[in-house]
Amino acid sequence: MITDTIKDVQHRMDSALQALHREFKTLRTGRANAAMLDGISVDYYGTPTPIAQVASIKVPESSLLVAEPWDKSMLGAVEKAIRNSDLGLNPSNDGKIIRIPIPQLTEERRKELVKRAHHIAEEARTAIRQVRRDGNDHLKKMMKNHEISEDDEKRGIDEIQKITDKHIDEVGNVLKHKEQDIMAV
C-alpha cells in the first residue's frame, strides 16, 4: 500500500524533472540548438502546428539553424512564425530553405534568460512540493481509514520527504548548469 504511494510520488516527481529539462532546452543560449524552436507553432492552413511537424530543423554549425519546410508553400509561414517568436531571431529564406543565424547574446539578454530559468525552476520546485503534499495527504487518509498504522504513515512521510529533497536538489543542479550555459561567453 505505502510502496504504491511512494512509487507514484517518485514517478510524478521524475516527470516534473523531465518537464524542467524540456523547458530548459527551449531557452536560448549562445549556441544553435534545434530544440530552441520547439515552442514555435506555425499556421498550417489555419491550424497552429509545431514547427517540427512542418519542417526539418538542422544545425549545420554552432551559430546557424536551417529549417526546410516539407511543403515549399509554407516557407513564408515558417519564417514569419520564427520571426514573431520571442527568441529574437531574424530568419531569411532563399526560396528553398530558411537560414536562422543565432546572434551572440547581449549581457542584458543573458540576464533576462537567467531570470526566466529561475522562474521555470521555481515552477518545477512547486510541482514537486505539490506531489509531496498529495502523497502525504494520501498516507494520512489511509491511516484515517485504518489501512495503515501510524508508524507506517510516519515512515511513508519520511520516505516521501527524502525523495522530495533529492528532486529539489536536482532542480538546483540543473538550474546551476543552465545558468552557467547561458552566461558562458
Order the strands across the largest sheet as they lie in space: 3-4-6-5
Mean pLDDT: 88
- Quaternary status: single chain
Estimate the strand proportion. Answer: 5-15%
For the terminal residues, how far apart are their CA atoms? 51 Å
Unreliable stretches covering 5 or more consecutive residues = none
Give the SSE order as H and E letters: HEEEEHEEHH
Determine the fraction of residues in helical runs and give it as a percent range: 55-70%
> What's the Cα radius of gyration?
22 Å
Separate helix tally: 4
The major beta sheet can be summarized as:
4 strands, antiparallel
Please provide the count of β strands. 6
Shape: elongated
SS-derived structural category: alpha+beta
Can you characterise this structure?
The chain has 185 residues and is of the alpha+beta class. 58% of the residues lie in helices and 15% in strands. The strands form two sheets. Strands 3-4-6-5 form a four-stranded antiparallel beta sheet, with helices on one face. A two-stranded antiparallel ribbon has the order 1-2. The radius of gyration is 22 Å and the shape is elongated.
List the helices and strands and how they pair.
Elements (H helix, E strand, L loop, with lengths): L1 H25 L14 E4 L2 E4 L4 E7 L2 E6 L5 H10 L7 E2 L4 E4 L5 H38 L5 H34 L2
Antiparallel strand pairs: 1-2, 3-4, 4-6, 5-6
